[in-house]
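Weekly puzzle thread! Below is a chain. First person to post its structure in token form gets bragging rights.
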Amino acid sequence: MEWMQANWVNITAVIGGVVTVASLIVKMTPSESDDAILSRVINVLKALSLAK
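Winning reply:
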């Protein structure tokens, strides 16, 4: 738990970067299934966030 608190800024930066790259990849593919998966992931992250 201490490690998580000490590195929280880095953890959130990595999560943001992964979501950004995934969003770019999803936009380039014609498939709708990956859009749905990314949407679910983003909704989970929104539910976990403190800012609403």
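Puzzle host: Confirmed. Bonus trivia for everyone else. Residues 15 and 45 are 9 Å apart (CA to CA).
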